Amino acid sequence: MAFKPNNPFLLTSYAGPEYFCDREKETDRLLNNLLNGVNTTLLSVRRMGKTGLLKHVSYHLREQKVICIYIDIYATQNLREFTIALLNGIWEAVPSKSSFGKQFMAFIKNIRAIVSFDPVSGQPQLSLEMGNAKTYAHSLATIFQLLEKQQQPLVVLIDEFQQIDAYPEKTVEALLRTHIQQLQYTHFVFSGSNKHLLTSTFGDIKRPFYMSTQLVDLKPIEAEAYSTFIRRHFEAGGKQLSDDALNEILRFSKRHTYYTQAVCNRLYAQGPKKPEITDVLKIGDQLLLEQEAVFFQYRQLLTPAQWRLLGAIAVEEKVYNPTAGQFLKHFELGAASAVQRSLAALEQKEMIFKENNDKGSFYQVYDCFLSRWLEKSTYSLPPAY
Ligand SMILES: Nc1ncnc2c1ncn2[C@@H]1O[C@H](COP(=O)(O)OP(=O)(O)OP(=O)(O)O)[C@@H](O)[C@H]1O
Ligand SMILES: [Mg+2]
Predict the structure, then answer these.
(1) Domain range spanning residue 194?
(2) In a domain, 62, yes or no
């Protein structure tokens, strides 16, 4: 899994601990939970680093020779596809020559899974015939039985778990819950980004996942840890960042992991040997300009009132009380009730998110670069009062 990338600031995938910044506490917590039978829900806004963390945890588990099954269910639409994803995850994780691998091959023959080849990657893939949900529910039960039969600790990491709320079969959570409760050797991390959906799945007393997992809420990496990481990689590449340049990277990208990585990646690739703050500003402008066509499209998708509110939130960065008189008046947003409606629409479209910190809960523009662009663009609003 580990490889040496040309640019140490990755924008996709995972290349081993060397290129992974911090997350020590979260990694320890997940590893501890997994090895002690506590199932965990990992939660954060998009692009904060959940998938990266899951890969980091897998890396450590595999070092300890624990079989670690990772599945991303973002593209799955129903229980059948979920079952297929799980089968493929197991197939990938279990060495084919081991006794477990042999049992697995016998098992997929038995349930008449079909082996085909991915036209793009050429990788073999499993699929299942269309049938009724009962068949897949049964398959799921037998898959878990097969895992347990190994009588060794096994880990299943399910990424984009909120997707199960979109399945037509509304019983999937209940089904999973029933199985998961009975498993002795197999433990899970459920990772997802849509807070509403995850909170409804896991937080509602009437819903089955309630109280069944421990929550880990992934926040931005601390400034000190990120600074050390960034400086170390620039130095390893023979480059020296000034303090101001480093602070500007963290300010501009709000320490939202993907955006911080994107600025660093570009500055590392294109900046001078001794990047100064002006170089960071230039890179920032360049990144915003590249995205401009997308930002204009967002504008088409929103009503003028929603767009205006989005601009106001961008300028303020964090809005704790979006219906406060001063905020409405300053940005000429109209009535509080209309702003409430726009807020709901923007949140639903994932243009903004609601988060908590020690000062309370606030709204922020989801896409950090869009936020910076709105602040700067001629369409934006007067500066903060
Ligand atoms: N601790 C880290 N150190 C360095 N880079 C990281 C770290 N965590 C994540 N990244 C990088 O940041 C980017 C976003 O992370 P990732 O894809 O893990 O986020 P995510 O929370 O899974 O997002 P989404 O909800 O959209 O799936 C990726 O390019 C990843 O390589
Ligand atoms: Mg992810």
Answers:
(1) 23-217
(2) yes
